[in-house]
Amino acid sequence: AENMYFFSELALTLNEPEERVAPTDSRLRPDQRLMESGRWDEANVEKQRLEEKQRAVRRRREAEAVEAMEEGKDYEGYLPLWFERKVDAVTGELICVYKGGYWEAKDKQDWSVCPDIF
């Protein structure tokens, strides 16, 4: 633990790669993988690329929302694949509840619904 900044064993293994996960799994982030292999300069370049890709997607969604509004159409925007937002009956807070599909997709290795985020 002393050599690993006093992180617990669990904390040290949370980012370990796992096979057969969704292509959107954060453990597959190319900048993280580069950083963990000590390739800092490449990781920083990759992180910048990923952030710009995310900004471009956000700008496109915002433009689509404006266009839909101008045309008098509804625009749903981004919807999570595996979760849905609901109001907790006890607390009244907005929570995310698993709506199914991930484990079935993992069993079939069918990730066709996943966006290309990396």
Automatic annotation (TrEMBL):
GO cellular component: cytosol; perinuclear endoplasmic reticulum; plasma membrane
GO MF entries: cholesterol binding
Superkingdom assignment: Eukaryota
Alphabetized Pfam families for the sequence: Oxysterol_BP (PF01237)
PANTHER family xrefs: OXYSTEROL-BINDING PROTEIN 2, OXYSTEROL-BINDING PROTEIN-RELATED
UniProt-recorded name of the protein: OSBP1 protein
Organism field: Setophaga kirtlandii
